Amino acid sequence: MNPARSDITIVPINGKAPRIHSSAFIAPGCRIIGNVEIGPDASVWYNCVIRADVHRIVIGARSNIQDGTVVHCDSPKPKRPNGFPTIIGDDVLIGHMAMVHGATLEDRAFVGLGAIVMDGCQIHSDGMLAAGAMLTQGKIIESRQLWGGRPAKYMRDLTDDALADMQAGVQGYVMNGRLHAAALDGQSQG
């Protein structure tokens, strides 16, 4: 990842600068602001906004934040003195145009295309929020559960095959990130 690229905005705020592992792929058009940590082989795709101006955001190893997604956090308030950071574990898949706000996504969690995850929510390891779903404040998706709808509700348990497909998707995004990084580096050198 070359943070000096002019098509990526990386901004420190409140004395906190983004910390991005050298193996992470950050696509053109991304805006990464404040107290953000992005782990090894993670990928943040075209035109995402990762804004940690009022709390912190952590994105774990090999996790991917797909095109157009917005990730934010929630500041401390009198009734919630700790606020809500956004913590995204390892091997997490977040689909295109999703919104994740002040939530915890444990290792191997999945957030579908256009889904919304609100403050205080948790998606446990191997849990899935379906495309277009909205997980309302404070809800918890347990391990191996699929939730969907607006507001999201439990639908069924996930099969071993579904979990294997999710992990194949993680590996696919790591490889695809490397391909895009190489293509963009070649473009800037040519």
Features:
34% strand, alpha/beta, 8-stranded mixed β-sheet, 190 residues, globular
Write up this protein:
The chain has 190 residues and is of the alpha/beta class. The protein has one domain (9-189): Hexapeptide repeat proteins (UDP N-Acetylglucosamine Acyltransferase, domain 1). A hairpin with a 4-residue loop joins β19 and β20. It has one helix at 160-189, and strands at residues 9-11, 19-20, 25-26, 31-38, 43-44, 49-59, 64-65, 70-72, 86-88, 93-94, 99-101, 104-105, 110-111, 116-117, 122-123, 128-129, 134-135, 140-141, 145-148, 153-157.
Query: How many domains?
Result: 1
Number of strands: 20
CATH architecture: 3 Solenoid
Structural class: alpha/beta
CATH class: Mainly Beta
**Which runs of at least 5 residues are low in confidence (pLDDT < 50)?**
none
Order of helices and strands: EEEEEEEEEEEEEEEEEEEEH
On the 0 to 100 scale, the average pLDDT is: 95
Annotated CATH homologous superfamily = Hexapeptide repeat proteins
